[in-house]
């Protein structure tokens, strides 16, 4: 490709970026102007994609981790032939446009993940590359490489300053993700100016220490040099991920804004855009794009040819290995097997029949034993707390790689050899959560990962991003209350359940026994368009007898009526409880009946987020109008007042370090205190 053509293609990106940002009077033009030549090298010479089918199974994945430079990817998608017309670029950052301020998956064709919170994009890319590698190991056969693509990511100084990049890069090196190629836009500028006073890392040595191959620094404005570096990375046989360090000038082409912080997050201004057009030799009016530029960028024919070639390859694979082909397609579509419904019923009924007294974290593992055996797409893990989170099962041996980077096959409970399906993430909660997002985005696996509930603070923004992106990801949070005991207030979750419930589109479950836990897992696995957080106990929980298992999936149900404790009269109060406190409510119900002849209904509400979505008639059936309600949960009380509670037995302070029984008494989580609270509500003057 001639140099003048590459320059023309890069300048087209620059023109669209500065025009769109100027029209919106908002945005970040500098990154797009600076990375335009890098984009030409990757998108025009290497990226395997099909604009006519953004969801082609074996496409390369591209992530713009420094998502503030969103006009770069929008320009690329428009120019190469995706369904992103010029009117959408003109509508940049406006209401309901397909060109939001930061790239959002599901809104813009060709965007693979929602980026903006720096560092998460590159971490998503690590998850995508891992998913590709594991699927290839599982489904490819000699002569039939139907899963064989690369993951590319652009990232900037901000991504590398965020601590999550350390977590992600270290794991990428440990996992030998040879098809992960990151291009670092090393321009030395952030919002506060030159980064040198506060960002002095030796990035090359840092990534080499992680186990990456490092190329550069190279001239990021020389498309041929970037092209050669990408080719070198792709041809390497060491199974190492590659970092290509590209030295660039932010705001490239702008006479007065290049290499300044003003180029980062401000429109260039009409006068500076005029000067930039002159400097670039771009004579065209705003949003005017000549046909020779479209012709140079057009990837539709090449993309269709690539996918057609893959389709032929897949047809041969399908003929030779029909079961594997069908399984791969099912999993990439995110569909559960037809056997799942019966598997879920059997798992829930089995938990009900056995009626075991175990911690809900153990109940979670018991459910997982069944679900991981029946769902090969379940890919688990833990942030260095496997023995506490209990996310491992007999069907999920630990993920390991040999010296050549191949997945080590292990024996499962059924005697078959398979690649590891349980990931040791190390002490990297945030990285784990964002990597799981990348795995889910890639497709083929349903990721789940565990840590203590109090450490959900570390991973919260990645949980929020999963909810925003509507991803099926399951977070297993154990040690959910002061019930963990002596570890004290640093580890005792007080506000975390309430905090997670505030995240839109996140399903939060705090089950009280084995059946509720099994239902929570079944619902989570069926939640194709939302993540789930399971909040689980360390301490053992007795099984609560129940008649209607089907009601559990509605998030709340009547667990015990007054007649179940010997009172033949209507309930005078309703006790609402979650998790371990369900047993406390049942004991208080019994005490109130025996000592005071007070009739109380006990409602178990394992999922407020699910119950809140039920029809009004069902809500009223569970929580009748005119009957006082008292909630019981070992956490902050704020979230419970919305149910019209007359009182809440909770904790609006931090915990203490002591054995759990001592803490329960100290904070008032006793049947006597709950019973007294009910009496005060009923007989207050």
Please, could you describe this protein's structure?
This protein is of the alpha/beta class. The protein folds into three domains: 302 residues, Thiamin diphosphate (ThDP)-binding fold, Pyr/PP domains (Rossmann fold, 3-Layer(aba) Sandwich), CATH 3.40.50.970; 202 residues, Rossmann fold (3-Layer(aba) Sandwich); 131 residues, Rossmann fold (3-Layer(aba) Sandwich), CATH 3.40.50.920. Helices cover 43% and strands 13% of the residues. It is built from 26 helices and 22 strands. The strands form six sheets. It has a six-stranded parallel sheet, with helices on both faces. Strands 1-2-3-7-6 form a five-stranded parallel sheet, sandwiched between helices. Strands 18-20-19-21-22 form a five-stranded mixed sheet, covered by helices on one side. β13, α19 and β14 form a beta-alpha-beta unit. α16 packs across α21 and α18 packs parallel to α19. The N and C termini lie far apart (87 Å).
- Stretches where pLDDT is under 50 for at least 5 consecutive residues are none
Summarize the amount of helix as a percent range: 40-55%
- What Rg, in angstroms, do the CA atoms define? 28 Å
Please name the CATH topology of the largest domain: Rossmann fold
Q: What sort of overall outline do the alpha carbons produce when their principal axes are compared?
A: elongated
Q: State the strand order across the main sheet.
A: 12-9-13-14-16-15
Structural class: alpha/beta
Q: How many individual domains?
A: 3
CATH class of the largest domain: Alpha Beta
Mean model confidence by pLDDT:
97
Alpha-carbon distance between the two ends: 87 Å
Q: From the 3D coordinates, which CATH architecture of the largest domain would you assign?
A: 3-Layer(aba) Sandwich
- Give the name of the CATH superfamily of the largest domain: Thiamin diphosphate (ThDP)-binding fold, Pyr/PP domains
Number of strands: 22
Q: What is the beta-strand fraction?
A: 5-15%
Total count of helical runs of at least 4 residues:
26
